[in-house]
Write a structure and sequence with these properties.
- The chain has a three-stranded antiparallel β-sheet.
- It has one domain.
- By secondary structure, the chain is an alpha+beta fold.
- The protein is built from two helices and three strands, in the order E-E-E-H-H.
- InterPro entries: PterinBD-DUF4346.
- This is DUF4346 domain-containing protein.
- Keywords: Chloroplast, Plastid.
């Protein structure tokens, strides 16, 4: 089981926001990544050490959710994280 969980949102300013929470820490300040498209968010995430700590299945799920968020940017629909 991963020690992190992620919250994906699409902001009003048409940006994809990714919040990363640590399950172990007693405080709940997330690590925040944001960008105008999925590739930017994934690039920022790849620069952080957290990417080494998540499982392959969690990474695939995160990629799916980020791609859904990017589709929402172009179709002007509402994003709901699975």
């Amino acid at each position: 089981m991963d020690n992190y969980y992620f919250l994906v949102r699409v902001s009003n300013s048409q940006k994809i926001e990714l919040y990363c929470f640590d399950k172990i820490m007693t405080y709940n300040y997330p690590i925040c990544f944001s960008g105008s498209n999925m590739n930017t968010v994934l690039y920022l995430l790849s620069l952080h050490n957290i990417i080494k700590s998540i499982s392959i299945i969690h990474a695939l799920y995160l990629g799916k959710e980020l791609s859904k968020a990017e589709i929402v940017l172009f179709t002007d629909q509402r994003y709901i994280q699975e």
